[in-house]
Amino acid sequence: MHTLPEAKGPVPDLPEAALPALPPAQPDWALFLDIDGTLIEHADHPEGVTIPTRMPDMLVALQQALGGAVALVSGRTIDWMDRRFAPARLAASGQHGAEIRLAPDAPSVPITIPKWRQPLEHTLVRELAAWPGVFIEHKPLSLAVHFRAVPEWSDAIMDKVVELGRGFDDGVEFLKGRFVIEVRPAGHTKGTAVEQFMRTSIFAGRRPVFVGDDVTDEDGFRAVRAAGGLAVAIGPRPTTQADHRLATPADVRHWLDQIPQMLEPAAT
Ligand SMILES: O=P(O)(O)OC[C@H]1O[C@H](O[C@H]2O[C@H](CO)[C@@H](O)[C@H](O)[C@H]2O)[C@H](O)[C@@H](O)[C@@H]1O
Ligand SMILES: [Mg+2]
To answer: Among residues 47, 164, 173, 55, which one has the least CA distance to residue 114?
Structure first.
């Protein structure tokens, strides 16, 4: 018999820190784009999101304007990105760096399926069945424990997941994002993905700009700043690493939409 914890009430967002306005985009930028909460608005369920109809054209125009140096870097799978953003196809890293496609026409390279993946999944499914409003998203190389419907249990769910994960291979990492616990392979992050992209001919020598909204984006922020680039935080989540901030995914799309025009050589 499971005893559910007492509800504590939702955790409020901290006030948005004032940061300088974004500088004009430059032709030598390399863009790294998070998806949920950055390119698209959140929804109650991972499959409930709406992809604006302009999104594929917008991404293709950005690729063309930046010599192909645009990558999607997400907790989602690359397969999901290809399906939902078709016909756009970009360089991409999925499942928090556990899979990577270094160029649009290159193959996706996944890490080996971690040993903990299946047994931990079975344990989480069994033990979390008693928690109403909590569900598990099954991805090939990682898991996501979603609790958007019961944010008041955020700490209790994290404690439970960590307790259940104790004793599994130490190659597993638990990271609490906004209304989600990402259960992911240790040693692979959005930051390691950025570093790999920056070593390829498409991205090398460019100034990396990472745009993201959640705690898993901090690794991307660190990586681009270490390479002299810019971190752009989306939404109200507090971060000490952002250079700039935009309030919403709609603001992000508006900004990205303008970049190709900004970079067009002036007509003579
Ligand atoms: O790295 P991201 O591109 O931001 O992806 C992070 C996770 O996003 C998805 O979950 C989040 O978005 C859902 C849809 O809005 C929302 O219902 C959920 O509460 C959020 O946590 C996705 O389902 C995960 O696989 C990603 O890891
Ligand atoms: Mg996100």
So the answer is: 173
End-to-end CA distance of the chain: 76
The position carrying tokens 């989306």 is 234
For residue 196, the CA-to-ligand 1 centroid distance in Å is 23
Report the amino acid identity of residue 4.
L
Given a cut of 60, whether residue 97 has pLDDT beyond it is yes
Give the 3-state secondary structure of 224-235.
HHHCCCEEEEEC
Coil vs helix vs strand at 57: helix
Q: What are phi and psi of 173, to 5 degrees?
A: -130, 140
99 lines ligand 1 (CB under 6 A): no
Q: For the chain, give the mean pLDDT.
A: 92
What domains are there in the chain, each with its CATH number? Answer: 29-111+188-263 (3.40.50.1000), 117-185 (3.30.70.1020)
- Best CA proximity match to 252, nearest among 88, 67, 34: 34
Residue 265 pLDDT class (50, 70, 90 cuts): confident
pLDDT of residue 268: 56
pLDDT tens-place string over residues 184-201: 999 999 999 999 999 999
Centroid of ligand 2 to alpha carbon of 233 (angstroms): 10
Q: Is 34 known to be catalytic?
A: yes
Window from 13-17, 43-47, 94-98 with minimum mean pLDDT:
13-17
H or E segment and range at residue 177: strand 172-177
